[in-house]
Design a protein that fits this description.
alpha+beta; single chain; about 30% strand
């Protein structure tokens, strides 16, 4: 792969955020005192920063033009040959919202504190991975994503991992109608997860869902903490759907919410709103994805 221009996306470490005066001074005090709740933050920060510095240094030594940006300042990414994220899966997820066709190499900046399923490198092997990229000796995996439509309007963020549909107040009941290939049920629960195959090892698995092969074309849904009201006549509590299926959720909540790949991308989902799910025409191109690491986790 020719790398004429690379974008390096970094996260700010938790230590960096809370050690800054603009954040909670009590947390800064606990960090300085080595409190048990935050004592690992500084070490993690140092490890993260060394990884960022090593990436920039190696790209510069190879004469590759690079730009560096904080992930909170991201805008749609264009005119780059490769995006390199430094952090964990969260940084890959957030960055993926801003690219449609440009490949991403995730670098796990703190392997001790992050699983990093989506990352293809770390500080120790980055040089070798970069050489493999330059010599076309590394795999690029297409990861299916979900395109959402809210009231038939395309939502700009494409989901790589999962979507949570729930009440905006965690303690409140989520009320919605789920429609699947002509079947229809009104539910009361704590919400519903919908995930890609890539996201099936995350929250939906913890809730009781099934882990899928990362390249699987199926999507999965799973209702959380369902209230059956004494009836057993419910059939749409979990399952799979593909792009040829009709799958939608209709809100019966005044304060419903849609969360896409975590807490940072969310939309109001009020009474009568309709959310539809389709396979995106833009799979994420993930560089150096380690299938074996994920398979080992699934088998645990």
């Amino acid at each position: 792969m020719d790398l004429n221009k690379v974008l390096v996306v970094y996260k700010r470490s938790t230590y960096d955020l809370y050690h800054n005066e603009e954040y909670d001074k009590n947390v800064k005090k606990m960090i300085n005192e080595g409190h048990v709740a935050v004592k690992t933050l500084k070490d993690s920060h140092n490890t993260h920063q060394m990884t960022v510095d090593a990436i920039i240094e190696e790209l510069s030594m190879k004469g590759i033009h690079l730009d560096v940006i904080f992930r909170g300042d991201l805008k749609p990414i264009e005119n780059y040959d490769l995006v390199i994220t430094t952090g964990g899966d969260g940084t890959v997820l957030e960055t993926s919202k801003y690219t449609k066709t440009i490949p991403i190499l995730g670098v796990n900046s703190d392997p001790k504190g992050s699983v990093g399923f989506f990352t293809g490198a770390n500080k120790d092997n980055f040089v070798q991975v970069l050489d493999n990229i330059l010599n076309n000796k590394i795999e690029i995996t297409d990861i299916n994503r979900i395109q959402l439509y809210l009231n038939d309007e395309k939502i700009k963020e494409i989901s790589l991992n999962d979507i949570l549909i729930t009440h905006s107040i965690p303690a409140a009941t989520s009320r919605y109608i789920i429609k699947y290939n002509g079947q229809e049920e009104a539910h009361r629960s704590s919400g519903i997860w919908v995930s890609t195959a890539a996201g099936s090892t995350g929250a939906i698995r913890s809730a009781g869902g099934v882990s899928l092969e990362v390249t699987d074309d199926k999507f999965q849904y799973f209702v959380r903490e369902f209230f059956d009201r004494g009836s057993k006549n419910y059939h749409l509590l979990k399952g799979f759907f593909s792009d040829i299926d009709s799958f939608e959720i209709i809100s019966q909540m005044r304060l419903g919410r849609i969360y896409i790949d975590g807490p940072y991308f969310d939309y109001h989902f009020t009474i009568g709103d309709v959310l539809k799910f389709k396979k995106s025409e833009y799979p994420l191109k993930l560089v150096g994805f380690d299938h074996t690491k994920r398979e080992k986790f699934i088998k645990k």
